[in-house]
Design a protein that fits this description.
This protein is an alpha/beta fold. It folds into 2 domains: 439 residues, no CATH class; 48 residues, no CATH class. The protein is 24% helix and 18% strand. It is built from 12 helices and 17 strands. The strands form 4 sheets. Strands 1, 2, 3, 4, 10, 11, 12, 14, 15, 16 and 17 form an 11-stranded mixed beta sheet that branches. A two-stranded antiparallel ribbon has the order 5-6. A hairpin with a 2-residue loop joins strand 5 and strand 6.
Length: 508
């Protein structure tokens, strides 16, 4: 294992919100350890930041500044297969044509990390770049925007093994927010592995069985996989069969989970999103979490929406058309999702954190035959580098506002990285279930320490401290999603400084 402790997170600060625009995003200077010939004519803040993260982490420090510097040699071994898992949720921002830059992981981050991974695995190793975006997203469009095809071809032209894979089974076309076409996609070359966590699931003792809602109109599918003591997930084979998972999430707020970083990012390694419970239908008093106070108007909307979704799913052409008409008529009455709490988009969502932590257990402990190895045998290597050069606040994950933070976070322990992300956003990790519960799993633990044991290592002296000792005035103050506002921020008593917005936070 690495010399970087699990409870240490690197937080590197640089230029705000600046990315290179020219794929394949080569560095702007020929660093001593750089393995290739080409350099970029424009600045590349991401490459500088990734390099800075690994240096700040103290990796292979004896060789820094030399051609032999290989920072990931302690983490990744020659000949291994590494899965790079970016956040490719969707290419379209509803208000800003360039909004994808603060919604999905930038290609310059991917290229920089991939270069150092190649330094570690060598010519006999393999990189797999894969994700399962939202089903109505265009993988090909994101590939173009992020320059992923150019990056892939860059490596292939140099005789290096690099694969780019869409992990989804289907891609949908939507019109006016309604599915109008479903296209089957070619199976990915690594297949899928089914797991039943059973009593090891975080859903054990949860009262939502039979009322879960997944990613499609037919809620029967998700409930069949989470009933009768079963808690089943279908996971992309590459995430199980690879030697190392290297997660490259985007730093954002999230409507269902509070924040999205590495723990939430593993939703993208599943092979069928409709096996994943996203919220539980019904009122909180009855075990549901779709809405904090489902009044008559909300209950009426829910019944009508269920009927319309059923028609849309069962009746081609006419069903989707009626669905579009109903949505258009319903918005002025029931409110738009971007301003109205529904579908578990609030701080009381007690479902999604369980699903996400189950996925993390599977990646940490899953075997290729669908079994789980004994925790005493150790966890799979799962590293994280978070793209916060241009982050997102407010109505994340798809409709955030930009935060030009200029930050990258790196660590060898996903829960620790996510706790650092939450704290530096100005949030209280204890108030975000996906973070707090990651340190409390009853079976197949994700952590051997608590989040208050986390120590930051940073090029900014204000952050080069134990996490809990960082002053609130030195953190960002991200705007939460409106369904979480007033519930996850650090307590005012912790902040004796003047208000410090994310736009005004001081730079090192």
């Amino acid at each position: 294992m690495s010399g970087l402790p699990e409870n240490t997170v690197v937080a590197w600060r640089g230029k705000r919100g600046e990315y290179s625009d020219q794929a394949p995003f080569s560095p702007a200077q020929r660093y001593p350890e750089y393995a290739f010939d080409d350099v970029s004519a424009e600045p590349n803040a991401a490459y500088e930041g990734v390099r800075g993260c690994f240096h700040t982490a103290g990796l292979d420090l004896a060789h820094f500044g030399m051609p032999e510097w290989n920072p990931l040699r302690e983490l990744i071994h020659p000949g291994e297969t590494v899965l790079l898992k970016p956040n490719m949720v969707h290419q379209r921002h509803p208000r800003d044509p360039q909004g994808w830059r603060y919604v999905i992981t930038h290609g310059s981050i991917i290229r920089a990390v991939a270069d150092y991974v190649w330094k570690a695995v060598g010519p006999k190793g393999k990189i797999i770049l894969a994700d399962a975006p939202q089903t109505d997203a265009s993988f090909s469009e994101m590939t173009r925007l992020l320059g992923l095809d150019v990056i892939r071809d860059f490596y292939l032209a140099r005789g290096l093994s690099f694969e780019l894979i869409d992990l989804r089974q289907e891609e949908w076309t939507t019109h006016r927010e309604v599915i109008v076409e479903r296209r089957k996609l070619a199976p990915n070359p690594y297949g899928a592995v089914a797991f039943d966590l059973g009593q090891a699931s975080e859903f054990v003792d949860h009262t939502g069985a039979g009322h879960y809602y997944g990613a499609d109109y037919d809620a029967g599918v998700v409930n069949r996989h989470h009933s009768g003591g079963r808690h089943e997930y279908l996971i992309a084979g590459c995430a199980i069969k690879c030697d190392v998972v290297f997660s490259l999430p985007k730093w954002k707020t999230h409507k269902k989970a509070g924040i999205t970083a590495s723990l939430k990012n593993l939703v993208g390694v599943n092979a069928d999103k409709n096996w994943l419970p996203h919220h539980t239908e019904g009122a909180p008093a009855l075990g549901g979490d779709e809405h904090p106070n489902p009044d008559l108007k909300h209950r009426t909307e829910r019944k009508m929406a269920g009927a319309i979704r059923g028609l849309s799913h069962r009746i081609p052409v006419v069903g989707p058309w009626l669905h579009q008409v109903a949505r258009g008529l319903g918005k002025p009455v029931f409110g738009d999702t971007e301003s109205t709490v529904r579908s578990g988009n609030w701080f009381g969502n007690d479902t999604i954190w369980r699903m996400c932590l189950d996925l993390n257990k599977i990646v940490f402990y899953g075997n290729a035959d669908g079994s789980l190895r004994d925790p005493q045998q150790g966890r799979k290597r799962h590293y994280v580098l978070v793209d916060g050069i241009l982050a997102g606040e407010g109505r994340g994950p798809l409709n955030p506002d930009p935060v030009p933070a200029g930050v990258l976070l790196f660590g060898v322990h996903p829960p620790s990285v996510d706790a650092a992300c939450a704290y530096l956003m100005g949030f209280d990790p204890d108030k975000i279930p996906i973070v707090a519960r990651a340190f409390q799993c009853r079976n197949f633990p994700l952590s051997d320490h608590g989040w208050r044991d986390i120590v930051l290592s940073s090029n900014d002296s204000a952050w080069n401290l134990p996490l809990v000792e960082i002053a609130s005035r030195d953190t960002f103050h991200f705007e939460p999603h409106f369904g979480w506002k007033g519930h996850i921020e650090q307590a005012p008593a912790l902040d004796t400084s003047a208000d410090c917005t994310s736009e005004a936070v001081s730079q090192p």
